Amino acid sequence: MDVCQKHVNEWFNEFQRYDIVKRYASRVFYFAIKRGYILNNPIKLVEMPKRIIEPIEKEEKNENYYNKEQLVQFLNYLEKGTNHKAYVLFRLLAFSGMRRGEALSLTWNDINFKTNEIRINKTLTRGENGRLFVKTTKTKKSIRTIGMDEKTMLILEVWKKKQ
């Protein structure tokens, strides 16, 4: 039994699905029992090792997000660049808090330049075969109006004229 435990521990360290390898070994032992070579299956007495999931440190969690200084630097870089469309999109995402699909589904009718508000009532999503389509938001709570800052609204107005 100690030999079996040793091997299962090795498989645990070597293979992602070590339990499948253990299952195959168990079948071999059952075959040996059928043939009368052994009386019992020693792998049945093995304790299965468990993977310990360590909590992610707070710093690691935020790796996919810019801090305020990084965001400002990124937006400044885009503003000076030639891809005005990307600048408008990322500025809108950063200052509105809306989801990417919500921003991409906006029409000019959703933007009120007089009140500096944007109405979010739909989202862009992928359907069968990767086709894109616009649909209503998941819940009624997702339908909302966002107040925007003047600079972002001015940037949107410039983009509207360019279109």
What is the assigned CATH homologous superfamily of the largest domain? Intergrase catalytic core
Which residues sit in consecutive blocks of at least 5 with pLDDT less than 50? none
- CATH topology group of the largest domain: hpI Integrase, Chain A
In total, the number of strands is 5
Proportion in helices: 40-55%
Assigned CATH architecture of the largest domain: Orthogonal Bundle
Number of helices: 7
Count of structural domains: 2
Distance between the termini: 74 Å
CATH class of the largest domain: Mainly Alpha
Order of helices and strands: HHHHHHEEEEEH
Mean pLDDT: 87
The spatial strand order of the largest sheet comes to 1-2-5
Biggest pleated-sheet summary:
3 strands, antiparallel
Structural class: alpha+beta
Radius of gyration: 29 Å
Shape: elongated
Portion in beta strands: 5-15%
How does this model look, in words?
The protein has a three-stranded antiparallel β-sheet with strand order 1-2-5, with no helix packed on it. The chain has a two-stranded antiparallel sheet with strand order 3-4. The chain is α+β, with helices and mostly antiparallel strands. Helix 4 (68-80) runs antiparallel to helix 5 and helix 5 runs antiparallel to helix 7 (150-162). The chain has helices spanning 2-14, 18-35, 58-61, 68-80, 84-96, 100-104, 150-162, and strands spanning 111-112, 117-120, 122-126, 132-136, 144-147. The model has no long low-confidence stretch (mean pLDDT 87). It folds into two domains: 2-45, no CATH class; 69-162, Orthogonal Bundle (hpI Integrase, Chain A). The relative contact order is 0.08. Strand 1 and strand 2 (117-120) form a beta hairpin. The protein contains seven helices and five strands; from the N terminus they run H-H-H-H-H-H-E-E-E-E-E-H.
